[in-house]
């Protein structure tokens, strides 16, 4: 198939499609769920766009192919590169370092070498497909070196970068043996986007400290005189997708069934997270445990449903976390559960969007308690799902979403277990009028800035550079 040059190129660790291999018949590709691809699809369509990324399988290099919306360019990774670049440097060095060192980051030179090599491969693939003067939009912490490599290869391009996770303060970032190279990598972009204002400030300060660049107001000037904008663009969700699902009678019926299947308690508390140590799952379980132990609520009155999506299962810290959480859930159910009625319904599984939205609709209190989180889309999805203006949101102040949702949510410091218990109780005891009032405030914020608006803001800013 002839894949031409593109005037709009997205570069991300993963391609936005999953391979479907039926037993009889040819392989095909299905668009993966996710707001980012939904937001970018219209831009892709109108600009003849291409997406550069990994398929998710080792040594997988299908020839470039097209869907209705875009050309897809696969970047292959070997088993060793998956271990060193992806599981290693991305998820056991950068991820914990950028999330407040909740788990100790590991610094290994072979991991760094693989990260550098793989970033170069992604940059070359993007350089090959980008038309003269094209816009290239690079995503996230796995690819922080791509902007600068790309700039060297193709000075004609307009390059944007968006970091989906936090950017840490200097006290933590300084640990990184390759801090200068990472900063220089990002400075190859014309626009570097972050979830929160504070992250952009961290970046500007660190660029001045560790590179030859000069800090300015929401921008950095590099040694060779280029201006790099650093701004916050709080990401959001595809509100219309959730609204459509909520209005589906099957989803409504499923939501009612979920309530009765967990014993029709007065309060359903819900957590939905990737099983990740940043999400504060243990903290929220502990708070609920203490509420039950102190008889603030009884197991008849309140149950917790915790969906924990399997994640990064080959990384050691994630294996330990799973053991810890499952021990904690087992103990709680042993202590407070009865036959057919556990205190915590723990689901280690991935779900279809319709099932997820049914759960969101069934929950009286959505409990989002990360110790650190770039944004947290689940909090916004909950708000979008509550077209009935019901439910309450307990939200960590350490999630990016807290910047926008502080008015209607019960904000908590998840490390403060007593505070968390008070917030859970307050959310459970909320009277209907105040609940409606709070949900209205939350919905104003979420509906006013959805993922399409986010993409538009970022790309408009980039074009205007
Ligand atoms: P994540 O850390 O993955 O994202 P989050 O923002 O909550 O966290 O997004 C998770 C997404 O996966 C949500 O859309 C959620 O509905 C979905 N999901 C969760 N559990 C699921 C399950 N069991 N089955 C199916 N789907 C499930 C990173 C950053 C965040 C940032 C996003 C986007 O860590 O801080 O908000 O990127 O920038």
Automatic annotation (TrEMBL):
One example of a Gene Ontology biological process annotation: trehalose biosynthetic process
GO MF annotations, alphabetized: alpha,alpha-trehalose-phosphate synthase (UDP-forming) activity
InterPro entries associated with the record: Glyco_trans_20
Domain of life per record: Bacteria
Record-stated family: Belongs to the glycosyltransferase 20 family.
Name listed for the protein in its UniProt record: Trehalose-6-phosphate synthase
């Amino acid at each position: 198939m002839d894949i031409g040059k593109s005037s709009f190129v997205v570069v991300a660790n993963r391609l936005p499609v999953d391979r479907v291999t039926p037993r009889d018949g040819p392989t095909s590709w299905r668009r993966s769920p996710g707001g980012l691809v939904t937001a970018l699809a219209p831009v892709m369509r109108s600009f003849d766009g291409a997406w550069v990324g990994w398929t998710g399988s080792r040594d997988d290099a299908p020839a470039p192919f097209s869907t209705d919306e875009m050309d897809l360019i696969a970047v292959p990774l070997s088993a060793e590169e998956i271990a060193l670049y992806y599981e290693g440097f991305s998820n056991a060095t950068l991820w914990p370092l950028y999330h407040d060192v909740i788990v100790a980051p590991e610094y290994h030179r072979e991991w760094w070498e693989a990260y550098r090599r793989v970033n170069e491969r992604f940059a070359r693939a993007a350089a090959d497909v980008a038309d003269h003067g094209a816009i290239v939009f690079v995503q996230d912490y796995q690819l922080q070196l791509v902007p600068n490599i790309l700039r060297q290869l193709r000075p004609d391009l307009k390059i944007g970068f968006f970091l989906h996770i936090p950017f840490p303060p200097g006290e933590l970032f300084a640990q990184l043996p390759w801090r200068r190279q990472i900063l220089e990598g990002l400075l190859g972009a014309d626009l570097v986007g972050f979830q929160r204002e504070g992250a952009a400030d961290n970046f500007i300060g660190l660029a001045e400290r560790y590179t030859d660049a000069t800090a300015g107001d929401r921008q950095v000037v590099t040694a060779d005189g280029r201006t790099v904008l650093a701004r916050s663009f709080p990401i959001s969700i595809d509100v219309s997708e959730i609204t459509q699902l909520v209005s589906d009678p099957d989803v409504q019926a499923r939501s009612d069934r979920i309530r009765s299947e967990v014993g029709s308690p007065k309060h359903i508390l819900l957590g939905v997270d990737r099983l990740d140590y940043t999400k504060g799952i243990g903290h929220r379980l502990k708070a609920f445990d203490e509420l039950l132990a102190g008889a603030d609520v009884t197991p008849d009155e309140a149950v917790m449903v915790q969906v924990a999506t399997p994640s990064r299962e080959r990384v050691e810290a994630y294996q330990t976390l799973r053991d810890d959480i499952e021990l904690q859930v087992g103990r709680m159910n042993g202590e407070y559960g009865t036959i057919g009625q556990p205190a915590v319904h723990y689901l280690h599984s991935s779900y279809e969007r319709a099932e997820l939205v049914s759960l969101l609709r069934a929950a009286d209190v959505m409990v989002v308690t990360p110790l650190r989180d770039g944004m947290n889309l689940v909090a916004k999805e909950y708000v979008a799902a509550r077209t009935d203006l019901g439910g309450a949101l307990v939200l960590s102040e350490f999630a990016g979403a807290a910047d926008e949702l502080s008015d209607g949510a019960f904000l908590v410091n998840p490390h403060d277990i007593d505070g968390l218990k008070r917030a859970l109780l307050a959310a459970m005891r909320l009277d209907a009028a105040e609940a409606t009032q709070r949900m209205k405030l939350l919905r104003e914020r979420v509906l006013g800035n959805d993922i399409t608006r986010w993409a538009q803001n970022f790309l408009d800013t980039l074009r205007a550079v």
